[in-house]
Write a structure and sequence with these properties.
This protein is α+β, with helices and mostly antiparallel strands. The protein has a single domain, classed as Glutaredoxin (3-Layer(aba) Sandwich). Helices cover 42% and strands 17% of the residues. The chain has four helices and four strands, in the order E-H-E-H-E-E-H-H. It has a four-stranded mixed beta sheet with strand order 2-1-3-4, with helices on one face. A hairpin with a 2-residue loop joins strand 3 and strand 4. Bound molecules: glutathione (GSH). The site of glutathione (GSH) has 10 residues, from helix 3.
């Protein structure tokens, strides 16, 4: 199961969640505030930034990379279809 650490107040978190919803992927949300100093969170986000995506043992703390990863594991529907509509 994919997990997104962060709170939707953050536009970066909303972007990651929107990408998951666009692809129809299920995910859990772990509400985490920006700058969280807990060692567990800093282990997956050394700068304390949200969002972080965790998928099995893989974690990534950057929205653009998160979206790229989502596109890799779920190529359909393709991003370019959505982009070309706007
Ligand atoms: N480059 C990061 C930026 C994310 C970011 O700046 N998130 C803010 C919340 S909107 C944050 O976590 N700030 C906490 C901090 O900078 O200490 C990304 O694209 O995910």
């Amino acid at each position: 199961m994919i997990k997104i650490y962060g709170v939707p107040l953050s536009p970066f978190v909303r972007k990651a969640i929107w990408a998951l919803e666009y692809k129809g992927l299920e995910f859990d949300n772990e509400p985490t505030l920006p700058g969280d100093t807990s060692p567990a969170f800093r282990a997956i986000s050394p700068l304390g930034k949200i969002p972080v995506l965790a998928h099995d043992d893989f974690t990534v703390p950057d929205t653009s990379v998160i979206c790229r990863y989502i596109d890799r594991i779920s190529p359909e529907p393709p991003r370019h279809v959505l982009i070309s509509r706007y």
